[in-house]
Every structure is written in C-alpha cells, then in structure tokens.
Write a structure and sequence with these properties.
462 residues
C-alpha cells in the first residue's frame, strides 16, 4: 500500500534515521525524514507505563474492574463523584440516575460499530418488566438506538493545496515562526487534504514540508504536528511498531488500537505495517507478547470480526450461558471460550450478550471478566466489551487518565485526539463531560501550554 508522500519501500528501522554513515546522502528524493525523533519527548519512544505496570497499582487500569476504583490513578473513588449532572452523591462513579450501569459506562446517544447506521433492538424484558435483582442493565435507554459518528475536523471547503503550502512557507520563512498560521491551516484541514498540502509544498519549493516543520518546532508541538501529517493508517501502524520497538512493550497501545478498530482499519494497518516497515505484525505480536494476551491480539489483528448489524437474541442467550459456564460457573477459567466469543461476535451482538448475561447471572460481564482474568488479557477483553457498550466513553476515559494526576501522558493524548479527530471526537467530548463533570477542552487547557495547547484546543473544537 502506498501513501502520498511516503517512500514505497518503507522506512528504515527505528530509531536511527538516517542510518549511521549515510547522513550526507539523506534524504533521497521523494522521502520524508520522519519518524526520526518522533515523538521527541523522552528520546523517541512512547512513555513507558508506570513501574508498577499496567494493569496494577499506579498503572492503567488496575485489575479487578474497569474502570478501576475511580477509573484511573487519582480519579474520584466510587460514590465520590457523579457521572451525570444532577446525580446525588453516593450514586457511584459512572452510574446514571435510576439504576446501575455497566462499570461506569453511560450509554451514548450515538455510536458507531462500523458498517453504517443500523437499528439495534434491545431484547425483551422479563414478566412485569422486572430484571433479576431489580436492576435494568440500560436504565432509561430507548428500545432502539441510532448510531453514527462525527469528527471535530472535516474537509475544508474551497480547498487549495498550493495556497495552503504558500501560507505554511511564509509562516516558516525568515526569523521566527508564525505558529498561529500553522495552527490555522493544519487544524482546519482533513488528513487527506494535509497529504495534498505536503505534496504541493515539495512541488512548489523543492523542499520537504515535514523537514521544514521539524526544524521550526520542538517538543510536544512537533510530535502533534508530525502526527497530523501522517496518513491515518500509517500513524496506527507506526504507533504499533513503536510500541514493540526496543526493550519493553507498551501493551496499552496495542490494546487501544487493535481492540477498537474496525475490520477494514485493521486489515489496512496490517498491510501498511508490512509495506512501510517490512515486518509482519502478527509475528511481531507473537515475539513481544505471550499467553492468552498474545492469542487475543493475534485474533484481533486478523480483522475478521462479524460486522453484521442485526442481533441474534437466541445466540446472545447461548453465548451468555457459555461465558458463564466458562468462568463464574466452574472452577478455573476456560480462556479460549472468552477469546472466541469476544473476538468474533459483532459489537451489537456482544452488547446483547452482555444484557443476557446480566439477567442470567445477576452481575455484569465486565465484572466477571475482572474476577476471572488479570493483567493485559483482562484489559484487552474489557476494552472489547467497553467498545460494544460505548466506544466514545472508552476513549474519553483514556484521555482523562492521560491527564489526571501529576504529569501528562502526552503521547496518549496526542494519539487519541489525532486518530479520533475525524471519526468520533464529538461523541468523545460529550462522554467526557458526562463522565467527569468537566469538558475535555478545560482539562487540556489546564494540562498543556503554549502552541501545543492552542493546536490541541483547535482540533477538539474548543
């Protein structure tokens, strides 16, 4: 797969670029110098998880429930903050008025499972409308839920790549840099339009736009700009490669990408990973992970999840029974049963299975997974279930945890804001406000500064 402005033969291995001893002949015509030095913070790799690990104390999230008490380190304790406006204290973290939700995940007005709009009917209730335990799994939710997504960035009307290239050239020419001009262009163009600007810049000036931007910018601003100019599929593939490059593995990045993307997105990532880095994604996953977590990620990178939007309620009942017998209903856990169902069923089907499980077992499937699994495979399975319930809420929580407490996980913040900016960032913002009683823009403004903050706020539409 080729991408505009990228070499057809791919990039050389990380992290040194250009290769030692070839600096004088680099870059060859038509190639871009990054991802050298990207991200610049910390010397070229995403920040490692806290020393206590992920999951675990101080990590993200803790075993035994997702969100962990409070969702992530430093978050409010259960009952200490209401997820919905007007909920009296003591209702619990993430619990909407009128009943118990699924582990802190409010239900979205809009949601995408891939494959276009569809109606997802809820299964019929019990006689008298009563659920076991007196708790409805989706209190107040309508019988059918329309689905859709909306990004904060859309393609600009009357787009002129050459005019934008000229604006960027002027912003970087001479002493100093007009960062506001750069922000105005890149935050208001789609990714496809940015690729055209990149090509027009080289055509007009015989210079590499990315190289010029790198020479003018630094730190988090540079990381954010480079992410915006990467084609979206390449950015996911690059993030996966970087997560497995060198010593250690950033498992939370693998989970965040492979457990949330659509079939088409995953297949394109696999092809891009091979074409750009000359490596097999599945083979890299096998060499960097192990056990049930390895098997889950290998299943994910096949991109073969059922995407039929219709729900088979009989299958949901049967799957719920099988999951119960594989976990809570036996001594030990049949991990392969969980892997098979969660890796193959469509997201609407999984949601129906979770409802059936809640009625049958009088507890939700997320909490059962927390009791039966631990470590990264627990986090991966829960991520799949959370995406079935409410994908924007999953990303809202990841954003919250990237900024909560001391310091900021800028790489996670940049990756989610950029990768979701044209997909569902509007819904993520809505869920963020609903779950944390503050806007995403407010938290970004308090955790970042300078041009980096200005560009992030422009992307989220603040």
């Amino acid at each position: 797969m080729s991408y505009p402005g990228y070499p057809p033969t791919g990039y050389p291995p990380f992290p040194g670029y250009p290769p030692a001893g070839q600096e004088s002949s680099f870059p060859p015509p038509g190639q871009y110098p990054y991802p050298s030095g990207f991200p610049p913070v910390g010397g070229g790799a995403y920040p490692q998880a806290p020393s206590s690990g992920y999951p675990g104390a101080g990590g993200f999230p803790a075993p035994g429930g997702y969100p962990s008490p409070g969702g992530c380190p430093g978050a409010p304790q259960p009952g200490g903050a209401a997820s919905y406006p007007g909920v009296p204290p003591g209702q619990g973290f993430g619990v909407p008025p009128g009943g118990a939700g699924f582990s802190g995940y409010p239900q979205p007005p809009l949601q995408s499972y891939g494959g276009g709009p569809a109606q997802v009917p809820l299964p019929g209730g019990f006689p008298g409308g009563q659920y076991p335990g007196g708790q409805a799994p989706f209190p107040g939710q309508p019988a059918a839920m329309s689905q859709g997504t909306q990004g904060t960035i859309r393609a600009a009307a009357n787009f002129d790549a050459m005019r934008d290239a000229e604006i960027l050239r002027k912003a970087m020419k001479g002493f100093g840099t007009d960062e506001q001009a750069i922000v105005d262009v890149v935050a208001n163009r789609s990714n496809d339009q940015r690729q055209k600007i990149k090509a027009a810049f080289k055509t007009m000036y015989g210079k590499d736009l990315i190289k010029d931007l790198k020479s003018e910018l630094s730190g988090n601003m540079e990381e954010l700009i480079l992410a915006l100019f990467m084609p979206s599929t390449y950015y996911d593939a690059w993030s996966l490669r970087n997560a497995m490059q060198g010593a250690g593995t950033q498992e939370r990045v693998l989970i965040e990408i492979l457990c949330t993307r659509t079939n088409q997105e995953i297949r394109e990532i696999v092809r891009c990973y091979q074409s750009e880095f000359g490596r097999d994604l599945e083979k890299d996953i096998r060499s960097d992970t192990s056990g049930h977590f390895e098997r889950l990620l290998v299943s994910m990178c096949q991109g073969n999840r059922d995407e039929n939007q219709s729900v088979n309620h009989q299958m949901a009942q049967e799957d719920a029974q099988r999951l119960y017998q594989a976990g809570e209903g036996r001594l030990g856990t049949d991990e392969s049963c969980f892997n098979m169902i969660l890796a193959t069923r469509s997201f609407p089907q999984l949601k129906a299975t979770m409802e059936a499980y809640s009625r049958m077992a009088n507890r939700d499937l997320l909490s059962s997974v927390g009791r039966e699994f631990s470590g990264y495979v627990e986090s991966g399975l829960k991520t799949i279930l959370q995406c079935a319930l409410n994908r924007p809420a999953f990303f809202a929580e990841r954003l919250y945890c990237s900024m909560k407490g001391a310091g900021t996980d800028d790489s996670t913040l940049v990756r989610i804001v950029v990768s979701r900016s044209e997909i569902d960032l509007v819904q993520i913002k809505q869920m963020f406000t609903q779950m944390y009683q503050k806007t995403l823009g407010t938290m970004i403004a308090s955790d970042t500064s300078g041009d980096y903050r200005r560009l992030l706020l422009a992307i989220v539409g603040q």
